[in-house]
């Protein structure tokens, strides 16, 4: 299933709603490599939201004969994409040149030596939104260049809330009340996010924990900070929802797309998801077009914390054409393509100036609010063992949400398992 072509206009609107706050690396038999690391390259990426990339790469290819870029699309799910990239990199294959990696993976890929450090002088880092640049660094070095950003939002059915004389929730208590009392009166389920055990659940759980004032790891993965009342409160928010019925059990199997479908088919009062949903839920085929809005995520006593999502572009350490790869990254993160990321891809760009570009703001009036929301979003924990950290978080949180452990038991287990990972070596390490 694909997150298909999205109308850029929707994104803008999306922001709407932030109302108020917010080639193959030529194998031996392949094409002859140009001197100096130049030649055809591949751009490998998750297979979602990529339709706009074909014409973008065609433009590059026309201007760069002999250095053509080929798109390699992997599965939509963050975890499956990562697994396929890692399998290729571990096998020593030079099939991938430019990797479009989730912001959450920079530390792990850098520590494992799968991606090569990037020369910061080659990219105008000052032109990017600052928190986004931070996701591309590890151990004080730049390993990637920001490409697309993301921040979690709360989508709500504006028609239902208006009928009830209610405003979108700003606290968990308001969300819980509306989800448990109002939703059933309208034949709706209350609230859902991405609760299948995969990276999406880690993002949702991190948001809940951070919103409650807690955290999971510190010091680039070296210290475990998960054992706290705030972590229990964060997990309890999610677990109580399922137990009390205002989070539908079925959502324990949903990723981004399943949850978006449920919302735009008119089944949910509230949905936590990324800004891409705005365009799609407002477009053709959506039953809720014109009848929903989005606001910053709520937290225990006021606005909550959203996780910084998105992806960075990195050069594979195994690339035979790293010079071309770096040039392709400069092209994709340049002002012109970044504009297309927004207008044709409906994705939040990383170039700060676009958020205040008069023409874009006219077309997408709430772009500045979206910027605010990205600037306020917090990164996931940095760790060279991020994949392991995420697997632990997913398993534990899913058990708590499924009622197999209480939030308190789940947090004790989470802290124990994260500590054993930290002991096993959380410091920067190379994998050969
Ligand atoms: C989105 C975000 C990414 C996150 C993923 C989780 O793709 O951009 O950062 O890890 O969702 O499913």
Which ligands are bound?
Answer: alpha-D-glucopyranose
The CATH superfamily of the largest domain appears as: Periplasmic binding protein-like II
Give the number of domains.
Answer: 2
Indicate the percent of residues in helices.
40-55%
Average pLDDT for all residues: 89
Category from helices, strands and their pairing: alpha/beta
CATH class of the largest domain: Alpha Beta
**How is the biggest beta sheet arranged?**
5 strands, mixed
The CATH architecture term of the largest domain is 3-Layer(aba) Sandwich
Output the radius of gyration.
21 Å
| Beta fraction | 5-15%
Strand order of the largest sheet: 2-1-3-13-6
Element order: H for helix, E for strand: HEHEHEHHEEEEHHEHEEHHEHEEHHHHHH
Count of DSSP H/I helices: 17
Low-confidence stretches: 1-34, 426-432
Instruction: Describe the global form.
Output: globular
β-strand number:
13
Quote the distance from N terminus to C terminus.
35 Å
* CATH topology grouping of the largest domain: D-Maltodextrin-Binding Protein, domain 2
Structure, explained:
By secondary structure, the protein is α/β, with parallel strands linked by helices. It folds into 2 domains: 5-150 and 310-364, D-Maltodextrin-Binding Protein, domain 2, CATH 3.40.190.10; 153-305 and 378-432, D-Maltodextrin-Binding Protein, domain 2, CATH 3.40.190. Helix content is 41%, strand content 14%. The protein is built from 17 helices and 13 strands. The protein has helices at residues 8-16, 53-63, 78-90, 106-111, 130-134, 158-163, 172-185, 199-211, 229-244, 256-264, 276-281, 322-332, 335-343, 358-363, 367-376, 386-401, 407-423, and strands spanning 41-46, 69-74, 98-102, 137-138, 141-142, 145-151, 153-157, 189-192, 217-218, 223-224, 268-273, 292-295, 308-315. A 5-stranded mixed β-sheet has the order 2-1-3-13-6. Strands 8-11-7-12 form a 4-stranded mixed β-sheet. A two-stranded antiparallel ribbon has the order 4-5. β4 (137-138) and β5 (141-142) form a beta hairpin. α1 (8-16) packs across α15, α8 (199-211) crosses α9 (229-244) and α9 (229-244) crosses α17 (407-423). The longest helix is centred in the C-terminal third of the chain and has 17 residues, at 407-423. It is globular, with a radius of gyration of 21 Å. 56% of the residues are buried. The model is unreliable at 1-34 and 426-432 (pLDDT under 50). The site of alpha-D-glucopyranose has 13 residues, from α8 and β13. Residues 1-28 form the signal peptide. Belongs to the bacterial solute-binding protein 1 family. This is Multiple sugar transport system substrate-binding protein. Keywords: Signal, Sugar transport, Transport. It comes from Streptomyces pini.
């Amino acid at each position: 299933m694909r997150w298909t072509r999205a109308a850029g206009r929707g994104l803008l609107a999306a922001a709407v709603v932030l109302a108020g706050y917010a080639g193959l690396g030529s194998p031996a038999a392949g094409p002859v490599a140009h001197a100096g690391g130049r030649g055809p390259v591949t751009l490998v990426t998750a297979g979602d939201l990529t339709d706009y990339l074909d014409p973008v790469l065609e433009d590059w290819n026309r201007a760069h004969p002999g250095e053509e870029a080929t798109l390699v699309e992997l599965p939509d799910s963050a975890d499956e994409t990562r697994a396929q990239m890692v399998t290729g990199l571990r096998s020593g294959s030079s099939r991938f040149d430019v990797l479009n990696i989730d912001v959450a993976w920079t530390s792990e890929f850098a520590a494992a030596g799968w991606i090569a450090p990037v020369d910061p002088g080659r990219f105008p880092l000052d032109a990017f939104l600052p928190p986004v640049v931070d996701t591309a660094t590890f151990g004080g070095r730049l390993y990637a260049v920001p490409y697309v950003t993301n921040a979690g939002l709360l989508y709500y059915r504006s028609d239902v809330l208006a009928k009830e004389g209610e405003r979108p929730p700003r606290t968990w208590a308001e969300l819980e009340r509306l989800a448990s009392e109002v939703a059933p009166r309208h034949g709706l389920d209350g609230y859902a996010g991405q609760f299948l055990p995969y990276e999406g659940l880690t993002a949702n759980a991190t948001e809940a924990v951070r919103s409650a004032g807690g955290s999971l790891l510190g010091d680039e993965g070296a210290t475990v900070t998960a054992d706290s009342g705030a972590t229990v409160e964060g997990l309890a928010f999610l677990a109580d929802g399922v137990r009390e019925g205002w989070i539908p059990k079925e959502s324990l199997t949903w990723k981004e797309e399943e949850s978006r479908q449920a919302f735009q088919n008119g089944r949910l009062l509230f949905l936590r998801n990324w800004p891409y949903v705005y365009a799609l839920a407002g477009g053709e085929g959506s039953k809720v077009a014109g009848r929903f809005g989005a606001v910053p995520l709520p937290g225990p006593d006021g606005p909550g914390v959203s996780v910084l999502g998105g992806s960075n572009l990195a050069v594979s350490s195994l690339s035979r054409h790293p010079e071309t790869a770096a040039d392709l990254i400069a092209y994709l993160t340049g002002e012109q393509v970044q504009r297309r990321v927004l207008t044709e891809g409906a994705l939040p760009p990383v170039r700060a100036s676009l958020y205040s570009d008069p023409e874009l703001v006219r077309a997408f009036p709430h772009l500045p609010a979206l910027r605010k929301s990205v600037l306020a979003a917090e990164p996931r924990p940095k760790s060279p063992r991020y994949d392991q950290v995420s697997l632990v978080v997913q398993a534990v949180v899913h058990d708590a949400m499924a009622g197999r452990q209480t939030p308190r038991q789940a947090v004790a287990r989470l802290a124990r398992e994260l500590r054993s990972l930290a002991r096993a070596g959380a410091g920067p390490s190379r994998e050969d």
